[in-house]
């Protein structure tokens, strides 16, 4: 799932053109994944067509695939780029041809345009491709710059030698490329710390998409981005919710280096009017260790006041900060009570083992949930609690007749854990 989400974000970034209007409000900040005007949307569809024979998906001869990148048929060009990406580092000799393919606007009958497939392929070539990806960052063609920047971000920390070139390209403030350049810096992570001064400047950019991605890049850099804390603290209360939440997330990724000012900003974010901001603030607090222990009472107050739409994340943070089942278990029980469908809460209760015995009645009740995943996690949790879950045995016996095989198997296993002698 994490890989799929990463590829989806990469596609969004690659397709970012001029961001939306300056007064765009509380919408998810990555630019639209729709195609350029007059072209179909860009998606993750992978399919063959009559002009892209199965051989294109199994060919391993890199020179043959490179030759197909110049074919007059866009289906064959697309198939070749896709296959080179599947080969990864063993196809590194194709990097120059893939860079040229970033200028290819051709669309196959089904799937992504050739240039996006080429960019995705470059991102799978590994560290040996990095030196060849630096100069193209200065290309006047935005597809080339975006494709190379996205590839560097996908290569990750091994692409740190390209940071200087990414910074130089970002300083041009080209609205067609800056989002993808920020994505590249984010992917490189701590090795992109020379970009921190420029990223701090971009936190004040007029375009909220740029502020959003600058927050993400700073979060990717981590503790070395501590100089950005004052600006990030300001953004936790300023601008669209998407910016506020990622400013909070960046503070958490920077860690204890945010100090009391950062802690105060995150505690205040627990009262933000938008729930995702509050949730990201809670998650960020969980990364701060001893620094955030004074915030435990504030998190508990936010829960009591109904500020959290789900409580499993809050419970996870409370566990990180206290390691106290007496603090965490009531929150997870409330999650099950309040929402009636929280597989994550049930799973966490199971991980606490016997210490979660107070949750046995609620877990047993959720064996009747309409959500099969919740029924499965509840059954499994009861087994992990062990003999202390004896009162749930009748409910587990009924679950042996559940319509879901997974639930039936979990119930059977749990009964053996609760009553080992039977």
Overview of this protein structure:
This protein is mainly alpha-helical and 422 residues long. The protein has a domain at 1-15 and 44-154: Leucine-rich Repeat Variant (Alpha Horseshoe). The chain has helices spanning 2-14, 55-58, 62-68, 74-87, 95-101, 114-122, 130-134, 142-155, 163-170, 178-188, 196-202, 208-221, 229-235, 241-254, 259-269, 275-285, 296-304, 312-322, 325-339, 343-352, 360-365, 372-385, 393-399, 405-418. Helix 5 (95-101) packs antiparallel against helix 6 (114-122). It is flat.
Q: What does this entry show, briefly?
A:
The chain is mainly α.
Protein topology:
Blueprint: H1 2-14, H2 55-58, H3 62-68, H4 74-87, H5 95-101, H6 114-122, H7 130-134, H8 142-155, H9 163-170, H10 178-188, H11 196-202, H12 208-221, H13 229-235, H14 241-254, H15 259-269, H16 275-285, H17 296-304, H18 312-322, H19 325-339, H20 343-352, H21 360-365, H22 372-385, H23 393-399, H24 405-418
List keywords for this structure.
57% helix, flat, mainly alpha, disordered N terminus, Leucine-rich Repeat Variant, 24 helices, 422 residues
